[in-house]
Design brief:
The protein has seven helices and 17 strands. By secondary structure, the chain is α/β, with parallel strands linked by helices. The mean pLDDT is about 95. It binds ribulose-5-phosphate.
Length: about 260
């Protein structure tokens, strides 16, 4: 069934479409997770199906692996690819230094491993994701199921001495049962309101026993591609210090990949 795209959908599409320009045939590409990344996977699939363009994709979740297969992208594991040219992924928040909060979709662990194993990470986002200070979006922390309540208590005690405004940790639910990640772990969402020292927080959180990884991506993202609903796209490269503006055609409905 065809669905009309909202302005946010169009903004996400615009960012995804522009970011695909960074991908060259032959590249090994990390494929992010979430609604913005899904547009990117569909746009990449369209280029592959058109012919003369081949990539190897490493998905960051079972959902992305399924979508990549459906749209015709060759999928391998990170162990098979070993290292990637590029990863393109969404984000829940990004700041002026391109530090990120990720994990709203629960895939932060694979996302961080894959992005870190890439020469370059490009974040695709709508403008609502840009913040002066990270932390309004609850920070996801992946914990193992064993003793998760103890990990939660330890996390809340740790936060008392850290430079944040909120300190509540909430177990993520999926209906009546805890949300379980692709690795079989739980997620605690930390309601911090404002994170004044994301670098310190990212390092400190991972010292708690039971914590597998947190959703702060520090010094990992190189480029952010920010889309707007009218097709305007801004590309910021933190290493080159450049800002470029472009425009892409945005569709009115999601019925744009009619060959699959
Ligand atoms: C998944 C993520 C996503 O990239 C993040 O939640 C953004 O999602 P969306 O593009 O749907 O807004 O980190 O774990």
């Amino acid at each position: 069934m065809t669905r009309e795209l909202s302005p946010i959908d169009k903004a996400k599409f615009a960012a995804a479409k522009k970011a695909v320009d960074f991908v060259e045939s032959g590249m090994r590409v990390g494929l992010g997770t979430g609604s913005t990344a899904a547009w990117m996977v569909r746009c990449l699939g369209e280029k592959v199906r058109a012919g003369g363009f081949h990539i190897t994709g490493v998905p960051t979740s079972t959902a992305t692996a399924k979508l990549a297969n459906e749209v015709g992208i060759e999928v391998v594991t990170l162990n098979e690819a070993k290292w990637l040219d590029l990863t393109i992924d969404g984000a829940d928040e990004f700041d002026g230094e391109l530090n990120l909060i990720k994990g709203g979709g629960g895939a932060l662990l694979q996302e961080k491993i894959v992005a870190t194993a890439s020469d370059q990470m490009i974040v695709i986002a709508d403008i609502a994701k840009e913040v002066a200070h990270l932390g309004a979006f609850p920070l996801p922390v992946e914990v193992i199921q064993f003793g998760w309540q103890t990990s939660k208590t330890l996390l809340e005690e740790l936060l008392i001495n850290l430079d944040v405004l909120g300190r509540e940790a909430v177990l993520r639910m999926n209906g009546d049962t805890p949300f379980v990640t692709d690795e079989g772990n739980y997620i605690l969402d930390l309601h911090l309101k404002r994170i004044n020292n994301p670098r310190q927080l990212a390092l400190t959180l991972n010292q708690i026993p039971g914590v597998v990884e947190n959703g702060l991506f520090i010094d990992i993202c190189d480029v952010v591609v920010i889309g707007a609903g009218d097709g305007a796209v801004e590309t910021r490269d933190i290493n080159a210090g450049t800002v470029e503006n472009h425009r892409v055609d945005v569709p009115e409905s999601d019925n744009l990949f009619s060959d699959i």
